[in-house]
Amino acid sequence: MKLRMELFVKNIEKSMEFYSNVLGFSLPKDINKKYVPVRKDDVVLGLGEMKNLLKNHPLKATEGHQIGLGVEIVLEVEDVKAIYDKVVAKEYPIHTKLTKRPWGLEDFRIIDPDGYYLRITSSTSND
Length: 127
Hints:
By secondary structure, this protein is an alpha/beta fold. It has helices at about 10-20, 80-90, and strands at about 5-10, 35-40, 45-50, 70-75, 95-100, 105-110, 115-125. Strands 4-7-6-5 form a four-stranded mixed beta sheet. A hairpin with a 2-residue loop joins strand 2 (about 35-40) and strand 3. The chain is globular. About 20% of the residues are buried. It holds the Pfam family Glyoxalase. GO terms for molecular function: dioxygenase activity. This is Glyoxalase/bleomycin resistance/extradiol dioxygenase family protein.
C-alpha cells in the first residue's frame, strides 16, 4: 500500500512555489494548472485548486474556515537540520523551531500558504 495526499489550495501557483522552492519538491514537466502532483523521493502531494471542487463538495472549505484543521502532515527526511537550514535561508516563517524530542526524533513545524500544518522530522537514534 502507498499513500498519496491531495491538498486543495486557494492559489496553485503559490503552492507550487512553496513546495518546489521552499521544500525542494520537483514539479512535473507538463503542468496542468487544475492539478499538479509534486514529488520528493517517495512522497507525492497532489495540488488542486479549491475553486475547481463542486460547490457542495465535502472537501471544500467554507469561507472563514481553516483548511486542513485537525491534520498534521509529517514528512520524514534523512537530515532535518539541512532542510531546516534551507527553509530558514528562504526566510519562510517557522511555526515551531528545530527541536530534539525525548522520544528520539528531531523536528520543526511550518504552515504552508493555505494553512496545512507540516512537521518535518528525522530520527535522532544515530546520534
